[in-house]
What does this fold into?
Amino acid sequence: MPKFTLNDQEIEAKDGQTIIQAAQNAGIDIPHYCYHPDLPIDGNCRMCLVEVEKMPKLTPSCTTMATEGMVARSNNDRVKEAVRGVLEFLLINHPVDCPVCDQAGECRLQDYYMVYGLHTSEIPLKMKVRKRKVIDLGPMVVLDQERCVLCSRCIRFFDYVTETGEMQFFGRGDHVAIGTFEDRPLDNPYSGNVVDICPVGALTSRDFRFKCRVWFLHSTDSVCGGCSTGCNVRIDHRDGTIFRLLPRRNVDVNRSWLCDEGRLSFHELRNGERVVRPMIKGGDGIQAPVTWEEAVRSIDTRLKEVREAGGAGSILGFASPSATNEALFLFKRYLSGELGANQFDFRVDSEDRNVVEEEDQILRHFDKHPNAKGAMTLGLMSAELGGIQGAIEAARAGRITAGIVMYINPLVRRPGDEEAEGRVLELIDELDYSVVLAAHKAEWHKSASVVLPVAAWSEEDGTYTNFEGRVQLALKAVEPGGDALPLWEVFAMLLHASGAESPWMSSEDVFATIAQNEPAFRGLTLEQTRLPGVVVG
Amino acid sequence: MKKPAKVINVSDRAASDTSFAEGVLAPLVGMKLTMTRAIDNLTGKIDATIRYPEERRSYSDRYRGAHILTSREDGSPRCVACYMCATACPADCIYIEPAEHPDPLIAKPKSARSPAKRRFGT
It folds into this structure.
């Protein structure tokens, strides 16, 4: 663990770390373009040059290992002039596209220019090298060769992370340009990541193109709801609309990457009408809107009647593997604690097997729900029922007559989804009394006795447990709209209506209760579920 | 027993507090100014009317008047939806909807997009 000094500050580096890595761990930012913590080191941009005592020339801090007793400096005039020199060269042929470039506001040329540059270009316009702009590289990425600073991050990403090698430099000298062979489109499922790692506006997102200037966006830390990997994301939103998802770096889960489907998963939230009011089906078979008070009281009364008539075993609790741990916990507490129900499941497909099955070697899993493992850990899986088919048969046979069913549309669609939804419809049809909690309207709502509007992903705080049992916190970014409530709150109200204790004022309170009561979560604090999350069970 | 309120005779008081000069002569000075102005306007010595479009107001260099979008030679607006105006506006009354220009490479490399709409007001 060598100790070295950077800008008069003593830093302890790990063995084998370079100066820039140790500095970043200590919170000191050395300007750089080509260095990336999750890509092999290149050392071609020359922005990270630092002065090291006893070395005659400035050395790139991304390739120089920190050694014991080293004294380095990045804040003296010699280094600042060197950095400014690099910027001058980069800006000679860089187009003045800032007004039309999406990277404005998060562009490292802009940022470093304001700190180190602030010079005027002395190159006559006639001599400026022009390259091709607005090149279509597929559904996710737009390329502008003129803006490229030749850092090679995209090349290294495709060579070492996806191992597909799509991008390469073409040409020599002043005319080097980045691109794909014959402008072929990028069609691998991780192509959106090059937009994140490009430090300038050369590679931009087609999905986000021209939608919003980045300084208008608010960022919220969350977890992707697309599959059981649980990649950490940052939701960028403005005035209740989500504009894009960016990855948050979590070395243990997704490093700096997101798959393209997860990146675009937020669009699914706008697919279809939302349920906005609690509805109860009257004697005439028509669903009428009611208040939450009325709905909750009606549900509790009716379920207790069912229990009196047919016993606690006739009540089914069908959860969703997309619901948060907080929602699932209170769901079980109400049904099991207040009504004595013991028939629980959540499997519409084989989520319990798919949750750990990898779809590819990089990030994706087959299970397109964020919390199947959470549902399993909280005891919502019945060996007896074996999934939704068992529940449908039990309902058909009359062993189960009533139930609360949660169904949240998956954010990443797969071919089997319609069949799965068909099974949910069948289940609700077979139940005599069904309470459905859903975010988006669907066919089966007409068969349900009660429909309750709930929040979808990104509309409530909560924790999700990923495929390896890692509990991660996802925060609320936007409002659900209408009368929709977070799922945990619905069950908190049901518990209250039943006469039980219901002291929770927020999802944090619920998490604290989970930590006290569930053996797998014992002793956890919510802070532990922030980056990088904590593995349970 | 309640004491009677103190009674003041207003006209007596007015007559005693205001002298002839204050009451009659002073207002006449103001009237002189008013009448002079009125006659000057009637005779045409003072003319506030600006005969637009032959006569125009002169503006200082920093005058902030009505907002307009300047045009290119072909008549289309120069605006490229850079959002500087919307960001700067303290009243937050500029709303911009950007869109891709049908020609991605117009003669000047800067203009790769133009706004579909730009509205003011609420």
Summary: The CA atoms of residues 59 and 112 of chain B lie 34 Å apart. The helical segments of chain B are 10-17, 20-43, 84-88.
